[in-house]
Amino acid sequence: IVDIGSDGSVDVKLDSTNGTKRIPLNEVRPRVVRNDGSTCPDNTCLDHLNDATILENLNQRHQQDEIYTYTASVLLAVNPYKEIEGLYGKEQCARYRGKHLGSLPPHPYAIADTAYRALLREGRNQGLLISGESGAGKTETAKKVMQYLSFASGASSDLASNIQDRVLQAQPILESFGNAVTMRNSNSSRFGKYNRVFFDEQGTLLDAGITTYLLESSRVVVHGDRERTYHCFYEMLRGLDDERLKEL
Questions:
Q1: What distance lies between CA 44 and its chain's CA centroid?
Q2: How far apart are CA 186 and CA 17, in angstroms?
Q3: DSSP class per residue in 63-129
Q4: How far is 61 from 80, CA to CA, in rounded Å?
Q5: For residue 33, what are the CA distances in angstroms to 2, 62, 222?
Q6: 10 Å Cβ neighbour count for 42?
Q7: What does the alpha-carbon distance between residue 66 and residue 59 come to, in Å, rounded to a whole number?
Q8: N or C: which end of the chain has fewer CB within 10 A?
Q9: Do the beta carbons of residue 135 and residue 83 sit within 8 Å?
Q10: Neighbours of 151 (CB within 10 A)
Q11: Helix axes 158-178, 231-239, angle to 10 degrees
C-alpha cells in the first residue's frame, strides 16, 4: 500500500508494471512476499489464507509445473495443457502406495490411495467427487484415479488389467456421443458420468461400470457461435460414403 485516501480507498503498487492503482480498501488482501520462489503444497499452510493468496499460490505452482495443490484433504488441479514427464505411471503409483495424505507432493494417486485404504480398513463404500469448469481436466483426472485403483488392487492380474482396459476403451465411445467443441475446450464433456469400481474383501478389482446422465440434449439442434454439436455427427459425415449419406 502506497497511500490511503480519505474516501476509504488505497493506492497499491503493481508488481507487473511498477505503477500504482487506486482500489477500495475492502478489496485489499494481506500477503507474505516470497522472493525465493517457494510455494505451499497445501493452501492451509499459507500465512494469510484468503482468495488472493490462494490464487497466487496456485499460479506460482502452475508456473513451476506443480499442477496439484492440497487444501486440507481436497485436491486442486490446474490444467497444464501439456505433458509433464514423470508425473504419472507405475513408478509413481508405487511411490504413493500406502503413504499418508500429505507425506508426498499433492497428487490424484494420494487421494485414490486414501480412499482405497479406507475401503479395506472400514469396509464402507468410498466416493471421489471430481468437479470443475470445462477444460479443467475432470475426465483425465478420472482416468488417473482408475489407473491407480487398478494398480493398488493388483492390476498385474489378467482380470484386473482387462477391466481397466475395458473402462478406458469405453471412453472414446462416450466422448463421441457426449463430447463437443466449446469456446473453452475442443473435447468438452456435455454430460455427467458416474464411474463405479467394485472390489472384493481382499481389495482385488472385480468389476466396473459407467453410468451417464444429464446429457445436454439441446446441443443436438442448437449451439453457440464457434461451438459444435456432438463429435459423432462429424465422424459420421467423414466416415460414411456418399451412398450411405444419401440414405440419411
A1: 20
A2: 34
A3: HTT--EEEETTEEEE---SS--TTSSSHHHHHHHTTPPTTSSS--HHHHHHHHHHHHHHH-------
A4: 11
A5: 16, 18, 49
A6: 16
A7: 9
A8: C
A9: no
A10: 24
A11: 90
- Per-residue pLDDT tens listing for the chain (248 residues): 788 887 888 888 887 677 888 888 888 888 888 878 899 999 999 999 999 999 999 999 999 999 999 999 999 999 998 999 999 999 999 999 999 999 999 999 999 999 999 999 999 999 999 999 888 888 889 889 988 998 898 755 677 678 777 877 888 899 999 999 999 888 888 998 898 999 988 888 888 888 998 999 999 999 999 999 999 999 999 999 989 888 88
